[in-house]
Amino acid sequence: MSPETKAVFDHLDGIQQRAFDLLRDLPARRELIESYFSVDPSTHVVDGNWYDVDAGGVKAEWVIADNAKPDHRLMYIHGGSWISGSPKGYRGLTSRISRATGCAVLSVDYRLAPEHQFPAGLHDCCDAFEWMLGNGPEGVAAAKQTVICGDSAGGNLALSAVLRLQDLGVPAPNAVVSISPAVDFTASSPSIKTRADRDPIIHPAIFEALQKLYLPSGQDIRDPYLSPLFGDLSQFPPLLLQVGDAEVLLDESARMAEKAKLQGCDVSLEVWDEMPHVFQGFAPFLPEANRAIESIGNFVTTKLALT
User: Fold this and answer.
1) Parallel, antiparallel or unpaired: strands 103-108 and 59-64
2) What phi and psi values does residue 53 have, to the nearest 5 degrees?
3) Please, which domain of life does this record's source organism belong to (predicted)?
4) CA angle (208, 212, 218) in 5-degree steps
5) Marked catalytic residue, from 247, 252, 270, 288
6) How much is the mean pLDDT over the chain?
């Protein structure tokens, strides 16, 4: 394990111990999660410009690297277990994704549970994407190319949003990137147990607690809008899944990739050795994070060039 990787693991281990204890103190937990990527000051340096925007009634911000094309637009959905996280805490990562992909990034500040349970956040993401189709960083203008990207809970919402947008008849994005997503609320993936001793940030015990916070009473946990693994992926856009092999969610990505491939989806799965949950946010400090973001950029630019 490299010194940088060890520093990230030690940082996340410290957050995990406090984050689980703070599930009953959500304001404090949300403040803690804002420091998720704070292993080094460089991770929060913004490589571009940003400003707030009302995305059709949904709070959001544009994050734009100087090489981004205003008609190439990527909606980013942050992680945080559906109960925390914000565009502000992700600004360093979204700016690097903007540069790597050449897209203007719309980072969505969707409503969080438990104040707003499922499907409120999902609806916000879909509404923001519809708005983005006709509105860019320079004002009202049609998008030429679109992408949806998200991590963790946001990776879940990215996949679910595509399924819902397709059901609504909204034009699908040209590509989708899902980083360390949760895709199965039955929590039946083997790695939830087999990787529990390696994952520095997610303890399996948190899943039951999160269900109580995020889901309304009586919710079917196999609903594809909640657990996209159970959705119809036959018309899904080109999909990139990135996951670390030190994650309890490792098999979530593997199972999603397997099903997508079986149903005819153009899907790529990248498993990164020794990497923890959403390691991409530790760029530029962590070398693997830099390479993963570069891979996202290559995937997106390749797929956009084909459409």
Assistant:
1) antiparallel
2) -150, 150
3) Bacteria
4) 110
5) 247
6) 96
- The DSSP H or E segment spanning 174 is none
20 has a pLDDT exceeding 80: no
Q: Is 277 a catalytic residue?
A: yes
268/249 Cα distance (integer angstroms): 17
Average pLDDT on 37-47 reads: 95
Tokens of 29: 């937990």
Instruction: Judge whether 294 counts as a catalytic residue.
Output: no
Query: Is 247 one of the catalytic residues?
Result: yes
Is residue 154 within 8 Å of residue 79, measured between CB atoms? yes
User: How far apart are the C-alpha atoms of 159 and 304, rounded to whole Å?
Assistant: 18
For the stretch 92-129, what's the b/e string if a residue is b when 16 or more beta carbons lie within 10 angstroms of its beta carbon? bbbbbbbbbbbbbbbbbbbbbbeebbbbbbbbbbbbbb
DSSP reduced 3-state for 147 = strand
Q: Which two tokens stand for residue 139?
A: 């004002």
Cα 137 from Cα 165, distance rounded (Å): 22
Among the options 95, 152, 178, 227, which is catalytic?
152
CATH match of 3-305 with 3.40.50.300: no
Catalytic residue among 72, 270, 277, 295: 277
Round to the nearest angstrom and report the end-to-end CA distance of the chain: 40
User: What's the predicted TM-score (pTM) here?
Assistant: 0.97
Give the residue from 103, 93, 106 showing the smallest Cα distance to 70: 103
